[in-house]
Amino acid sequence: MPFIEADQSRMERWRRDLGETTPTRWWVAERTGSVVGFVGIGPCRDPIDAGLGELDTIAVAPSAWHEGAGKALMSVALEGLRCDGYRSAALWTLSRYPLGESFYVSTGWRLNGATRDDHNQVRYDHDLRKSDE
Fold it and tell me: Is the pTM of the predicted complex or chain greater than 0.85?
């Protein structure tokens, strides 16, 4: 799957999140002085349970795939969610995205069965009380 550029509404939400004092946090991965990936976490935007955090976004430039940046970002994000007191976390991603599915499953996420956006997005859950990532 090609690297997807963020649309204007997503970039505006990220800008707003970064400027607020909400419990949303972001990290970047760098290689030789250039950003090659980023990850963001916070409370679940689908207010189901106060103990549910969310992996908002994780992205790595294709030139840095399979070099450890994604796993390092995921590890930092999961630890951040645990430190923020969440018992579990959710993430939404594109359906029919085998590369993403393989990555999420390898880092401890499990397909939830929920869908949205006319089945174009699927939800994964992660039990943060386990340390199996």
Answer: no
